[in-house]
Amino acid sequence: MKTQMEKDLFGIIFKNFGRSDLETRNSDNEDFLDVSVWTLKAALEEAYKAGQASEK
User: Fold this and answer.
1) Minimal CA–CA distance to 47: which of 13, 18, 3?
2) What is the largest CA-CA distance in the chain?
3) Which residues contact 2 (CB under 8 A, 6 or more apart)?
4) What is the chain's alpha carbon radius of gyration, rounded to the nearest angstrom?
5) Which of 9, 25, 29, 31 is most buried, judging by how many CB atoms fall within 10 Å of its CB?
6) Which helix (H) or strand (E) holds 30?
7) Do residues 33 and 17 lie in contact, with contact meaning Cβ atoms separated by under 8 Å?
8) What pLDDT does residue 49 have?
9) What one-character DSSP code corresponds to residue 3?
10) pTM of the model
């Protein structure tokens, strides 16, 4: 069973990168993602805010 943190992180991953997991797939097309800096920034900000919210 996934923890709340895992659920939050995988939600962020799916929303920003379209991936449902972080498993190695042994395929360059699936293991190395082209990600814009603004998408990476948005994902990191969302993860940071989720961390702050979990402290409350």
Assistant:
1) 13
2) 40
3) 10
4) 12
5) 9
6) helix 28-31
7) yes
8) 94
9) -
10) 0.81
Alpha carbon separation from 44 to 26, 28, 38, 50, 52 (Å, rounded): 25, 23, 10, 10, 12
Structure tokens at 24: 């190695």
Region of 18 on the Ramachandran plot (φ > 0 left; ψ -120 to 50 alpha; else beta): left
Residue written as tokens 């699936």? 30
pLDDT of residue 34: 94
10-residue mean pLDDT series, the chain (56 residues): 89 94 93 95 95 86
CA nearest 15: which of 43, 53, 38, 54? 43
